[in-house]
Write a structure and sequence with these properties.
This protein has 244 residues and is of the alpha+beta class. It folds into two domains: 84 residues, Glutaredoxin (3-Layer(aba) Sandwich), CATH 3.40.30; 121 residues, Glutathione S-transferase Yfyf (Class Pi), Chain A, domain 2, CATH 1.20.1050. Helices cover 53% and strands 6% of the residues. A four-stranded mixed sheet has the order 2-1-3-4, with helices on one face. Helix 3 packs antiparallel against helix 4. The structure holds glutathione. GO terms for molecular function: glutathione transferase activity. It holds the Pfam family GST_C_3. InterPro entries: Glutathione-S-Trfase_C-like, Glutathione-S-Trfase_C_sf, Glutathione_S-Trfase_N, GST_C, GST_superfamily, Thioredoxin-like_sf.
Length: 244
């Protein structure tokens, strides 16, 4: 039985959070919407789930994971499920619950990063909401990025294991989530993140350490890692980074 991940095939998006857990664990998985010619594959295969044609609960939106009879949706919940199943999560119940809260918070930050370029409406184009996006971006850069990253920094500093990781003494799925959000923010807000890297060295060091983890380094160098783009959640619009 394989682990089948379903997500839009042309962007990293929120699918990247569970994908990184699968890659870091060296899991045998299928990225179904990127597989044409495989039963249940391609975007059509994904849409069959979304339309309730596969005998599973119907997720609101991708990503979702199918593991045999089980369907798990919501990027943070999938990451937690995979982390706990594949050995990239704390072993104890309090640690697991705490890690889930961290993943949900990373999901909140991801949503806020998205809403910078879509502050008025998800179904409108960026070009239809540029003045509002400019206002939102300033607040996001000056207030929200420091608030979120300062919180992660504090978690790293106060982790009783003093490991440089967010929880416990080894890499977990929440570190992979923080890496992804830091990478996305660095793509979308390079000026703001250069400053954040100076203010929050523990976060920067954690992200660099994840990047150098052998299975992640292999993955990032592979064609399976799609580039960031202005179609995704994190978008490089220089005007939103306080630039021209
Ligand atoms: N909170 C959900 C959000 C899922 C989500 O918004 N997925 C996007 C792609 S990243 C989508 O396809 N949304 C369709 C829609 O909202 O109509 C998660 O983290 O998985």
């Amino acid at each position: 039985m394989s682990l089948d991940l379903y997500y839009w095939p042309s962007i990293q998006g929120r699918g990247e959070f569970p994908r990184l857990v699968l890659e870091a664990a060296g899991a045998d998985y299928r990225d179904m919407a990127r597989l044409d010619g495989v039963e249940g594959g391609g975007v059509e295969g994904m849409m069959a789930f979304m339309e309730g044609k596969r005998g599973h609960p119907v997720p609101f939106a991708p990503p979702f994971l199918v593991d045999g009879d089980l369907l798990v949706s919501q990027s943070a919940a999938i990451s937690a499920y995979l982390g706990e199943t594949l050995g990239l999560a704390p072993d104890d119940r309090p640690g697991r619950e705490w890690a889930r809260a961290l993943a949900a918070t990373t999901s909140d930050l991801t949503a806020e990063a998205h809403d910078v370029h879509h502050p008025v409406g998800v179904s409108l184009y960026y070009e239809e909401q540029k003045p509002e996006a400019l206002r939102r971006a300033k607040e996001f850069r000056e207030q929200r990025i420091p608030k979120f990253l300062g919180w992660y920094e504090r978690l790293i500093e106060t982790n009783p294991a003093r490991s440089g990781w967010l929880v416990g003494n080894r890499l977990s799925y929440v570190d992979l989530g923080l890496f992804q959000v830091a990478a996305g923010l660095a793509y979308a807000f390079p000026r703001a993140m250069a400053e954040a890297d100076r203010r929050f060295p523990g976060v920067a060091a954690l992200a660099a350490r994840v990047r150098e983890t052998p299975l992640i380094a292999d993955y990032l160098a592979s064609p399976r890692r799609l580039p960031f783009s202005t179609e995704g959640i994190f978008r490089a619009y220089p005007e939103l980074d306080g630039g021209a």
